[in-house]
Specification:
Elements: H1 26-34, H2 38-60, H3 63-79, H4 90-119, H5 135-152, H6 157-167, H7 173-180, H8 184-204
């Protein structure tokens, strides 16, 4: 069934205000959504949000990532609602979309992490210095330093310390963990974030 031209993508949000009484069966909600009812989609969202959130969190173990996946899931549900053929229950179909979204999220995260890890600390900064190179190269370096400075404003001091201990003083993860009273997982996560920040700065500088 073709999507009505009047359908407007609903604003998906976690915190919701009370809504008027709406159809209670999935089938009725589905029919209303296909007619372009945003309120019906809001009802569907309210019905499945917590279940999909819990399902996603079991795989991701991170609230920020889970929130992102849940939003992507319900956006896909809305966009693909007309492709639901009824061969399974609507709930199974939604869970299937959530599962695919989770898997895609994990693959993207692993690919990005591997790219950053391969880069190491090499290539994270321009080779030029402020006293050598052409005017264009010096301008690029200044821009790079500006970007790094701006991005570092969002980084906690302890994360900068962790990066320095690892890459300037060659401390092991275990040593850094003991010196900063942070878990090894927190140290690895912080190092990944700092490397990614510097890599993106180099690419944008």
């Amino acid at each position: 069934m073709a999507a009505p031209s009047s359908r407007v993508t609903p604003s998906i949000r976690r915190r919701r205000t009370p809504l008027p009484v709406r159809p209670t069966e999935d089938g009725e909600l589905l029919a209303a959504i296909r007619k372009g009812s945003q309120s019906a989609f809001e009802s569907l969202y309210q019905r499945y949000f917590q279940r999909i959130y819990n399902f996603s969190y079991l795989r991701l173990r991170n609230h920020a990532d889970t929130e992102e996946v849940v939003q992507e899931t319900f956006t896909s549900v809305f966009r693909c609602i007309d492709s639901f053929k009824g061969r399974s229950t609507l709930s199974s179909w939604i869970y299937g979309i959530a599962k695919n979204t989770i898997n895609n999220h994990i693959r993207r995260a692993k690919t990005e992490e591997a790219r950053v890890e391969r880069s190491g600390c090499e290539g994270l900064r321009p080779a030029e210095s402020l006293t050598t190179g052409t005017p264009e190269e010096q301008l690029r370096l200044r821009r790079y330093l500006e970007i790094v400075g701006e991005r570092l404003e969002s980084v906690a001091p302890w994360q900068i310390e962790v990066f320095e201990l690892r890459h300037l003083h060659n401390c092991s993860i275990q040593d850094i963990s003991e010196q900063t009273s942070r878990s090894s997982d927190a140290i690895r996560s912080s190092l990944y974030r700092m490397k990614r920040l510097l890599l993106e700065s180099a690419e944008n500088g």
